[in-house]
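Box 4.2: Ligand-aware structure prediction
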Amino acid sequence: MHVKSYYAATVESAIRQARQELGSEAMLLHSRAAPPESRHLGAYEAVFASSVEAAPPEAPRRAPAPDRVAGELAEIRRQLDRMSLALSRVDSRPSGLEAWGEEVYAELAANGLAADLALRAARAVDAGGASGSPERTRRILEQELGKLFQVAPGLDLPASGQAGPRIAALVGPPGVGRTSALVKLATRHGLVRRRTTQILSLDCDRVAAGEPLRSYATILGVAHDSVDDPGALADAIAEYSRKQLILLDTPGFGPGDWERAAPVAEALAALAGVETHLVLSCAMKPSDLMRVADRYLCFAPSRLLFTRLDETSSYGTIVNEAVRLNLPISFLSTGQRVPGDFEPAAKARVLDLVLSGSLEEEIPAGAAAAGGWGSEYRAVAP
Ligand SMILES: Nc1nc2c(ncn2[C@@H]2O[C@H](COP(=O)(O)OP(=O)(O)OP(=O)(O)O)[C@@H](O)[C@H]2O)c(=O)[nH]1
Ligand SMILES: [Mg+2]
């Protein structure tokens, strides 16, 4: 298994270059704007995993085996998890922190923040001389953690001069809340803003998979169509090219039917200008969430959309994944109500969730006196 980056002026040509060299068996892990140090190689980077050595383009290819590649990636992940667990048992106490820093570290870790991020933030608090001052601690934590991740609320407009609709696709594991989020987006970014909107659901071989979405679309009065073959996706998008907004719902793939994911990922990669949101549940165990997110990197997501914030009080995972995957957070789903319980991601809101461990937007008057540094803050409404 080797991992290689391809750089080009556009994501599509980077993918094309990789496919020529590695063949269709290679798996797209992610694509992004090239980091400054590699920008001279091309504006965009596409990272591919391949179990075969680079071969000339004319070499014959075997059929794609995404399950094997995914299996190998999962095994590497399992080994890394075991190693980090072993290391954390050797020394679970962060070293070099003052008593106040240790307290801050413990609270951040309890809110689900990854150990390295919690340690970095606690060290900044100690270095800032914030000992005993909740307000100062809070300010330093917001600054330190706020530097680490980005938000991208809203849906991107097509580049200037580029004709056609904006297209957003939601991908993610089964039952995570993709369809609900899509309906919320259709309402807030389509109906409310008076954009001509088309919902497309890629149903593949699940019988009546698109039914809940069709019902919602009918109630809302948004046009809906379904596509049952990933190969027909480009034609369907072309058919609705006069719409202003196309929202694409995709099937959720579990480990048991992962082989069906590859054609969908390929079909999405072949479309130009799709903004792909990876939908992740905050209620998942962090290590499971990490594994699922890694598996879905082959869909080349450019945003992270978090659901089920109402089912947990441990929000560190939102920041952990945004930092780890270097992807901005787009939206937060805070409950089952449609089209309610949905927020465009705001940095202040995410920081408040992580620091207070509460979904409440307003801390009741007087509560500050009862708690530590986390309870002193009033969240900024998104
Ligand atoms: N508590 C809570 N429930 C949610 C949230 N988002 C969605 N749900 C619920 O989760 C269930 C599944 O939601 P769907 O939107 O159908 O999820 P999906 O990912 O499209 O599911 P499949 O297409 O079946 O894989 C429904 O009962 C939703 O009401 C959320 O933010 N919080
Ligand atoms: Mg669904």
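In the box above, the bound molecule is magnesium ion. The pocket of guanosine-5'-triphosphate (ligand 1) is lined by residues 174-180, 212, 252, 307-308, 310-311, 333-336 (CB under 6 Å).
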